[in-house]
Each structure stands twice: as structure tokens, then as C-alpha cells.
Amino acid sequence: MKGMCSDQIMGGGKVLDTSALISWPLSELRGSMIVSSQVGELEKYSPMRADIIHSLGLVISEPSRESLTTISKLAMETGDMTGISPTDLSLVALAHCRGATLVTDDYRMQNLAENLGMNWRGAVMNGISETWRWELKCIGCGTIFDSPDSPSSNKRELKQCENCGSALRLRKK
Ligand SMILES: [Zn+2]
Questions:
Q1: Tell me: the pLDDT tens digits for 36-53?
Q2: For 133, which of 42, 66, 97, 173 could close a Cys bridge (C-beta 3.0–4.6 Å)?
Q3: Stated pTM of the model
Q4: Residues 3 and 95: beta-carbon distance below 8 Å
Q5: Cα(68) to centroid of ligand 1, in Å?
């Protein structure tokens, strides 16, 4: 039932990021939600666990287009779009449209959830205690660039400065 968030059948519940999927006790995973692209990630990082979760009753779902748009706009505003993966963006959107608790140790995902007043918790660590905004700044000429409008699959790959060709770095505003 892709994109059927309006039915809210699963209201509440938990959405798990991949680190939670890998590190949490199996007994905690039953009934939690994930997105389909995580299954591939899990098969890559932890094939044995991937086999097991297929039998655990995890709910594989996708966020609504609306929620994905909401989260994408926010991520551009906060600067979290730089460096977030498409899977992680989908997870925040899924938790948003399902009214679920987002379980993640990723500070970008926590920052987005906190900005929207969503419920979230760390998987292993405590998580952030404040929200922030990022800006993308050239280390050469100091020009500040707008956030990209889509997630990047490679977290380390920031573009070069259009003016001087130097590297761009993320800084807290
Ligand atoms: Zn520059």
C-alpha cells in the first residue's frame, strides 16, 4: 500500500533507520516500519540479519508524496539536505505521515524531526538536545550557497564553489 498515509492504520508505532535495524534486539523490531530501500542496505551490511528480519513482521512502507515534499522543503531550509541520503529522507517522511516515532542516531534526521515537533528517539545514543541550521560555505572565497533541492546518495560529495573552484564545507549558522 504505497503512499497510503491518509488511512493512518498504523498511527503511532516506530520507524527504524538502518542503524537501529542492525543494532536493536530482534525482539524490539517486530511491527516496526521501514522503507523498501533499507532492505537492500541491510542485505549489504548484515546479510544474516536481513534473512532474519524477513520473518519478523517488519512493515515495509513508503511515505506519501505530500510528506516527502514537506520534509524536502524543510531539509532545504535547515541545510540538512546536504549530506542526507534518499533513504533517510524517506524515513523521516514516513514517520511524519504515519504519526510514528522516528528511531535514529543520525543528527540530520533528528534535526528534521525536532523542527517539525515529531516524536523521535536515538537508537543507541541519546541524540541532539537542540536544533540547528546549516549553511554551505566556500572555504576559498567565503560565498554561501543554497541547499541542494534533493538528497545525495554520497554523503561526502559536496560540490565545488562555482566562483573559485574551492571546496564547500557545511557550517552551523
Ligand atoms: Zn569560492
A1: 999 888 888 888 888 877
A2: 173
A3: 0.80
A4: no
A5: 32
